[in-house]
Give the backbone structure.
Amino acid sequence: MSKRDTINKLIMKITEFEKAYKHAVDSRTSKLGVTPSQYKVLKALDEKGPMKHKDVSEITLITKGTLTGVVNRLERAGLVSRTQDAKDSRAQYVALTEKGQTEYARLEKSYRKIIGNIFNPESEEKLKQYITNLNVLVALVRQGETD
């Protein structure tokens, strides 16, 4: 196998992992009553506090157009609230409501169990090795961006 073939195989395996992981997590989290995108927004708001739509979009990697619909549904469910930015009337802040904080705590507990079940068969040492390997790959990709 040539180096080029090996690189292609590596990229295919990374893509395969991402799809398999996303499917495994999404199929389980959908049973919790929220979409994966809604979960990402709730998680970001819980970790960072109130933020502008633009910042939520950047953190969650959800496009601004899609994010509007996600936030609308969360707001209708009473899980988030929106307030106008005092300095920029075009900008809005999104924040967890008290109900949203309670719901996120419930979801996070279930989510941790889901993730634990997926990765539990592996030893902690093996998981740390995966992290090390992924860090190397991320560094290679970032280095390639600047060349």
Summary: The two ends are 26 Å apart (CA to CA). The first helix runs from residue 3 to 29.
